[in-house]
Amino acid sequence: MYGFEALTFNIHGGYLEAIVRGHRSGLLTAADYNNLCQCETLEDIKMHLSATEYGPYLQNEPSPLHTTTIVEKCTLKLVDEYKQMLCQATEPLSTFLEYITYGHMIDNVVLIVTGTLHERDVQELLEKCHPLGMFDSIATLAVAQNMKELYRLVLVDTPLAPYFSECITSEDLDDMNIEIMRNTLYKAYLEDFYRFCQKLGGATAEIMSDLLAFEADRRAVNITINSIGTELTRDDRRKLYSSFGLLYPYGHEELAVSEDIDQVRAVMEKYPPYQSIFSKLSYGESQLLDKAFYEEEVKRLCLAFEQQFHYAVFFAYMRLREQEIRNLMWISECVAQNQKSRVHDSVVFIF
Amino acid sequence: MESSENGRESNEGISVKEENILNFLDSVDGYLILMDSLSSTLRQGWLELASARHSMGASRINSTLFDLKLHPASTTLQVNDQSAAPDRELPHFTLCKWASSNNPEKYFEEAKFGEDELLKKSNSLRHRDISHNSEIQARSPESVGSPVTVDDQAEKERYKSLSMFGTLVSPKLRASQLSFETALEMLVEVSNMRASLLCAHDQVQKDMETATK
Q: Keyword Transport on this protein (chain A) (predicted)?
């Protein structure tokens, strides 16, 4: 019953909640970002990060550094923390933590299938996969010719199996089918995660519903904008939207028929939580939309830590770390390309 | 009478030499402006690509997704054979963009129009125009009245080339594609400008050698 988690949560979840709150305090602050934004070279960035929790992961990297190396090592730190928490977790927290990684699993599946379609070497593709989304039979994905084989040979034994029921066809895999498969899988995953959180109930259900609804709405907007001018039909576009969220169902109906960014804006401005996002953009502009959405997401994720005795802090921490890694990637790219004046275009401060 | 005719001839000779020098300096100026524009367009393209990677994720934008299957080039470069046009001393480069198997000549003609414009400019004295830089930056295949007009086929070819990263890609990736496309056009302009620059340089050198004899 909601409100009584304080009596029982700490029995199984108290230690890990304390761990994750400790990890949260290690997130980079605005002062750290200001120092990083003033770096002249990637070696300077490495030197500044050596004073943070990323230090041990970067200290042995030889020069010259590359931006992808910085991102890989920072991601390794996140993976290590996640695995430490997962091995200590009991049900249902362990299932909750596994749900957090299914999005990366979907990305890895699509990467392998797309790369195989383009006649790339499987080992090369495996090196580019996100470590949080790895599973044992992932290399076997290269054998499949269509989605039925993909499911039958590999994915039937993975957590993604239930999400395939909506996209199993005998059509050969091509770029459009793969894209629809990606978005259909992610839609099914989000809906499943949402239902799981609702079953958990209490503060977890309340906070995660808000976070997942925001994620579903953001995906709907991104799918709409990215599909403008492409061959994706309105019906296919509508099928990719999740069946929950603030925009469901009327906002989705309007987004499905939107043909440009201004029409998308007109739809979103009817919903008060998204008015503030679109008010930061000028008409016809979509370049800063990503940053505006990330800023709103960070605000909501930070609010999750204001309450105790729920699992949403784990989700929030993972997402905040991923945002931090995105920030570091952007700063590194701006420094490497000698474009430091553009560094604040995409950096989202967390604290 | 003869001395006045000789004087007129030498005055004309001097003005031709001065014109050659001015042509050379004009070509150098045009070449440097183009190189500067090319550098800034390429920088913009690389940053937009990084922005697209930041937006879509590193797993969606990386070199392992490049298509290694054999397919025809969507853009080709043609070098005019000097024997076919003996009146032309300069090698001439022409870009054939987004050529389809149905209509390979169409874009060739449209792209060539831009190069002919450039040749006309290089053959006459060019006044320094500080807006030339912004014209090149602003000129995009989508602008109305630009030398290379965009139609559905070009848009389809453009999306097809981006489909290796997925069919629903961020507008930032498309902007990056346009920047690199513009940079490619500029490269061809730079090559043509360099050819006229070298020709003008040879002319000036000949004049100097004649003057010293």
A: yes
- DSSP-assigned states of every residue in A191-204: HHHHHHHHHH-HHH
CB contact under 8 A, B64 and A226: no
pLDDT tens per residue across span A321-346: 999 999 999 999 999 999 999 998 88
CB distance B168–A330 less than 8 Å?
no
Per residue in B30-62, pLDDT (tens digit) is 999 999 999 999 999 999 999 999 999 988 998
Give the tens place of pLDDT for each residue, B113-165: 444 444 444 444 444 444 444 444 444 444 334 444 556 778 888 888 888 89
Give this complex's ipTM. 0.92
From chain B, the residues in CB contact with A129 under 8 A are 59
Are residues A303 and A290 in contact, defined by beta-carbon separation less than 8 angstroms? no
Distance of alpha carbon B92 from alpha carbon B199, whole angstroms:
12
Beta bridge partners of B94: B78
* Shortest distance, CA B169 to any CA of chain A (angstroms): 5
Closest residue in chain B to residue A183, using alpha carbons only: B168
Residue B167 to residue A287, Cβ atoms within 8 A: no
Q: How many CB atoms lie within 10 A of CB B179?
A: 22
Instruction: Quote the tokens at residue B99.
Output: 């050529």
Conformational region of residue B98, where left means phi above 0, alpha means psi within -120 to 50, and beta covers everything else: left
pTM (2 decimals)? 0.86
Taking an 8 Å cut-off on Cβ atoms, the answer to whether A330 and B47 are in contact is no
Backbone angles phi, psi at B71, to 5 degrees: -150, 155
Give which of A128, A225, A341 to mutate to test B binding, by max B Cβ within 10 Å.
A128
Chain B nearest C-alpha distance from A80 (Å): 20
